[in-house]
Amino acid sequence: MTAQKGRDVLLKLGAGDGPPETFTSVAGLRTTSLNFNAQSVDVTDMASAGQWRELLSNAGVKSSSLSGNGIFKDAATDASVRTAFFSQTHDNWQLIIPDFGTVEGAFQITELQYAGSHDGEATFSLSLESAGQLTFTAA
Fold it and tell me: What Rg do the C-alpha atoms of the chain give, in angstroms?
């Protein structure tokens, strides 16, 4: 895989309009980040070989978090994100990473922040936490 442009990474919010669901890009994002997490289950006991930690396979909780920072460029995207935050719904989101694939699933917005300085543009940041099983589709 060759180097990719960061601006080609897209975060999209689902419209919930039935199969196949349509997704709209969250406009104005400058940075986007995706984290995968997997908690481990420690099953070490006094009889563990060499006193090394043992982990239970296929156990624990998997989660993912998404975040983005940017500037709002259209009122429709602003309204969709704001509505999703205040309703605290589990909406379908997509993160498209060119030449890698698409991560899709239910996320809840856990943080929405607006900021601005007197000599700059108004900005926003948002954080999302997974709220169910995610799928990955290779590019």
Answer: 19
